[in-house]
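Suppose a colleague, Dr. K., hands you the sequence of a protein chain of 116 amino acids and asks what its three-dimensional shape might be. Before reaching for any lab equipment, you can write down a predicted structure in token form. Begin with the sequence itself:
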Amino acid sequence: MDSIYDDTCPSFEGTLELVGRRWTGSVLQAAAQGARRFSEYRALIIGVSDRLLSQRLKELEAAGLIERTVIPTTPVQIRYRLAPDGQELVDALQPLTEWIMRRGGRTRGSGRAPAA
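The predicted structure, expressed as tokens, is then:
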């Protein structure tokens, strides 16, 4: 049997690791729903701390998935939006989201849907 490793494997694993981090999917979804300001992300993502939200936005920006714009007003305004690659990733994840919904939201090992 051949190895599953090829030139794409490290990139694939790195992307899965990034997307699998806590709150990353929620940040991407909030951006896809039109969140632009930090406070809008915080309002859409119930339970995320300011520190972790800031960290995820920085990681997604560094990965080229979120674009950050500084508007030099008083006070300074920061706007975020999905970068083209971020939109492509959200689109690519849509079939996974649909698959999860067909399964009734069951998570690994639980055999039942998570509590709402």
